[in-house]
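[Solved] Which block belongs to which protein?

Original post:
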Amino acid sequence: MQQSEQTKISLVAPKQAAGLRLDRFLANELPQFSRSRIQQLIRQNFVKLNGAKARPRDLLHAGDDVDLSEPPPDKIDNQPEDIPLEVLFEDRDLIVINKPAGLVVHPGAGHREHTLVNALLHHCTELSGIGGRGSGMIEAKIGRHPVHRQRMAVAVTRGRSAKTEYRVIRSGSEMSLVECRLHSGRTHQIRVHLHHLGHPVLGDKVYAPKLATIFPRQMLHSWKLGFRHPRTAKWQSFEAPLPSDFEQALSKL
């Protein structure tokens, strides 16, 4: 998964949106953003209405072009620190600690270092979920792209429901290894959903052609497949080894 600089979304106001405030229209069409976040992005000039600066109260006309660019989150480069921890329990999956009073949990304004996160990075070198590694669920309809007919796209008004669960396994400075679990089976689902988040698949010449020069193909691999046998109802599970070019991509992490 390629780490992009920002998320870009382009919309065209349909007839039924005529007369709606810009912030309300975007909040309705983009449920992944709260209305307050939408208003903040508009005021910070990250939303353009027909290519011009917009206001939250601007009223839409049918056919108006609305472009939203969400800036990337601030990068926090947490460093491991040898801070003593009172460990109550630890195994390969969990750690339970008795946090001392006064130890700040997360880095933030005024506390960029000397936090519990810094201590855990030193103590648990293999612990996932430390240092900004995210996981989540993408629930966004997918339909045919209105202009590029060979592509699919997140369709806010039309399209079929699609759900992708994702988890970051390993992160590098320019790319990450992500596990995706499909809860639906739409065309190009993983590629479209990750592109929608602003993190397209490496080597994807259709959805991220400018970033597809490093690898000759999409760095997607169907690792595990599970289903119930249609006759016996017995659960079947299969795993496929990683191909050599995928292993080479991982070596760059």
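(Second protein starts here: sequence line, then its structure tokens.)
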Amino acid sequence: MILPKVDPNPIDDLLSRQQEDPYTEQMYTVEVFTKEEIDKEVARRHIFGTTGMMPDIYDQGTHFVI
């Protein structure tokens, strides 16, 4: 409901790992695919501002890996 386009399996995985060991910080890789019309610098800054992580950019600026 809150994240309608997100696969619930990684969320379930995260929550179960946090319950098993609440003091370990979990790390995941997130990939975002965009259209060519998206300004890659604006997207890069938005991703950094949201996650605190600088994304790697591939495929002429249409594939971001965080």
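Accepted answer:
You had them paired correctly. Confirming on the second one: The beta strands are 31-33, 56-58, 63-65.
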